[in-house]
Amino acid sequence: MYDAPFFYLVRFWVDPKAEDRVIAWLKGGHMAEVVAIPGYLWANCIKLDEIDSLGWSGYANIYALESRAALEAYMANPIREKFARENAAFAGALRTERSWGATAIALAGASAAPQRRTPARGTPARA
């Protein structure tokens, strides 16, 4: 599920007084609206253990995309104007940093579920 060739990352810091409202906005539809856009594969919101120098909580949204072209289409999509208006409600209580790029290295950890492979012809299948 977590493989993707391209990612869009939104790291953000939230004033504790606005944290519940920001999270409600994300859960209430913003993230679902983003991943409903063609080219998006999945999204995760991560609560970071970090607190900034102002005492604000850190988060990171990770969006997986099919390609760089999918992100470019999103950046040109008029829905971003709607998101900017919604985001304006958090002025002074939300700081964001955006980054994006292609997967350079992808590894599965020891605890990852093994992928079932079809044996080559004439090769006995292993349990």
General description of the model:
It is a single chain. This protein is of the alpha+beta class and 127 residues long. It has a single domain, classed as 2-Layer Sandwich (Alpha-Beta Plaits). The chain is globular, with a radius of gyration of 19 Å. The two termini are 23 Å apart. The C terminus is likely disordered.
Q: How do you describe this structure in short?
A:
This protein has 127 residues and is of the alpha+beta class. The protein is built from three helices and four strands, in the order βαββααβ.
CATH topology: Alpha-Beta Plaits
Give a count of the beta strands, DSSP E runs of length 2 or more. 4
CATH class: Alpha Beta
Helix tally equals 3
Radius of gyration: 19 Å
Key traits:
127 residues, alpha+beta, Alpha-Beta Plaits, 3 helices, 28% helix, globular, disordered C terminus
Helix and strand arrangement:
Layout: E1 6-14, H1 19-35, E2 40-51, E3 57-65, H2 68-75, H3 79-88, E4 94-102
Antiparallel strand pairs: 1-3, 1-4, 2-3
